[in-house]
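#lab-general

N.A. 3:47 PM
ok so I finally got the sequence cleaned up, no stray characters, all 334 residues accounted for. can someone with queue access submit it? mine expired

B.Y. 3:52 PM
send it over

N.A. 3:53 PM
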Amino acid sequence: MLEEHLMNEIQRTAAAPAPAGDRAPSRRSVRRPLLIGIPVTAAALAGVIALNAAQGPTGAGASARATAVEAPVVSIETGSSEQLASTVEQIAAAAARTGLPDPGPGHYVYIKSQVSYQSTSVDVDSDRSKTWVQPLHTREVWKSPDGTKGWLDEPGQQPEGGITLDKDAPLSKPVNGQDIPGEAVNFSYDWLKAQPADPDALLTAIRAAGGSGRDRDQEAFEEIGSIIGEQVVPSRIAAALYQAAAKIPGVVLVQHSQDAAGRDGIALARVDEQRGARTELVFDRSTYAYLGSRGVQIRQEGETEPGTVVERTAVLERGVVNGQKERPAGRRTA
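B.Y. 4:20 PM
back already:
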């Protein structure tokens, strides 16, 4: 049903009449971070909505959607494998020393971020593409440890007050550290906690959870970014996760990157050869703490120029709370 709804949205966007002098563009693919238990097609649907918002109000709830803005452009720094191994060891060591809270039944993982994601439009007459991004905005996510319950509040991009991410049953139930064959992995806290703190085994498990037909190495790298961006990861697993990322072919070190909050840092990066965009996972160059991510176009793709920042995130707050919609220190949403 979700995939069918997405295709209907895409077709309506492509076919919708435009005001005179302002031809409405159709929708091309978009990547968003994986949400708790939500297929990537749902994330792509969010990009369709963002594009509709850029064209103007399209019906009920349109006033809550933010207008898309033109993507910024930055200088492209060449990545290198030099110092990659030593830097990853520093990142892993810092992660292993971090005393993160251990969520239990009734708790929720809470992540507050500043984000901006890509929306690429294509003019149906000229077939020229244009990359737009959402304005930087706050995104708050609550996730239960087993991945079955959650809430997303993203003002301007979701209905006012947020949307539920609750599921009726777990998408993946670890059995002696293994997943039930045929079940989709939701990379919940419980799933991560059940994994071995071994980089090779962890990378194998993440790759096995893929299967979209894309570049499996790129898929694994982006999945690791999604996990560390919106999850509390047990320290021993976090260390192994960073080491696993460095084992993926094509991963390099970029000496200067920047998260959505403007914080400068070093980055583990990999180019998606299909899209020509580089995903950068940004770390503080002194503490080696994870800051956020950035996606930079490396080669020309339609009208999207090299250096275009197609997405960016910054983790502002991460913790464990006692209830859905509750913020650290007992603060609650409306």
